[in-house]
Amino acid sequence: MAKLISVVVPMFNEEAVLDGFFARIVPVLDGITERFGLNWEIVAVDDGSRDTTADRLKEIAAANPAVTVVLLARNFGKEAAMTAGLEHARGDAVIPIDVDLQDPPEVMDEFVQRWFNGAEMVVGIRLDRSADTPVKRTTSRLFYQLFNLLCRPGIPENAGDFRLMDRVVVDAVLRLRETNRFMKGLFAWVGFKTEYVEFVREKRSAGSSTWSYMRLLRFAIDGITGFSTVPLRMWSWLGFTIAILSFVYGVYFVVKALIIGDPVAGFPTLVAVILFLSGMQMIGLGVMGEYVGRLYMEAKQRPVYIAREVIRSRAETSASSDPDRT
Ligand code: UDP
Ligand code: MG
């Protein structure tokens, strides 16, 4: 039986780009599947769009039996939508891709080629990000450096979600049941034989990005706290260092007062030191709060997303990738 590749596409308010996306990706998929003797399916996840995305997807699914549509009950965010897509994908290989055509579908040909040659994961690396603003590029570089300093395993800079994963990788990723899903981190965490393919990130084909800087910052904090406890432990070291330094400083004053007889003055210094230290303590507490809050969210064990409706594709699967097999 021919192998199946699944393309997973999260969408949130994307009516402006949706038709263009299908028009461009379907011929590419047809070409790839013909060249390699495969079948394809597209798993489109509507992440609670408030425009006509969901209706349009239903129409597309009705017309095209190779399209699965998962409609989420509300906007759960891209990471949750992608998880929903991965869970509903039946392929022997799965490729997550953005709907705005910033990830050129033509690159998938190289992905599949590498997969055929034995790679278990083929990661797209954005070579030229001139399509993104300089501020976004700088903050993104800083984030990757910080992440790789604090977290193991690290993630390659400029790797996005656009990649091919063999079924073994997808199954491994789906076994990670955490609510806080920083997908790039999860993909790297599971390991497997990984290769890299460079590509040029294109401009968004239409519409606008829904990621504000506040949202990106939250995403960055999610990523780091999800994979590292260094921010927690850091405070012990800082406290330790300050304690030693202040002890030495105290001894210095005692000696100065006893031997030299210098009356120790310095109300302003005292205020400055107290304020500085209480500030540090509050930051430490805040960091602890971040982790406690996350523990609380994880402890509830809520599902990552809720689907309102699922329309399943009728693409043929190879026996190995059929989730209904017993
Ligand atoms: N997306 C989503 N849920 C959201 C936000 C975005 O599924 O809450 C999807 C969006 O439709 C697109 C992809 O995630 O397919 C990337 O989003 P976007 O282009 O806005 O992000 P950027 O390219 O600026 O990182
Ligand atoms: Mg985009």
TrEMBL record:
Keyword terms, alphabetized: Glycosyltransferase, Membrane, Transferase, Transmembrane, Transmembrane helix
Q: Where in the cell is it found?
A: Membrane
- TM spans (from-to): 235-255, 267-292
Principal cellular location given in the protein's record: membrane
Q: Which domain of life is it from?
A: Bacteria
**What Pfam family is a match, any one?**
Glycos_transf_2
Give the membrane topology, semicolon-separated if more than one: Multi-pass membrane protein
Q: Which residues form a coiled coil?
A: none
Q: What Gene3D superfamilies would the database entry show?
A: Spore Coat Polysaccharide Biosynthesis Protein SpsA, Chain A
Every copy of the Glycosyltransferase 2-like domain together lies at 6-172
- UniProt name for this protein: Glycosyltransferase involved in cell wall biosynthesis
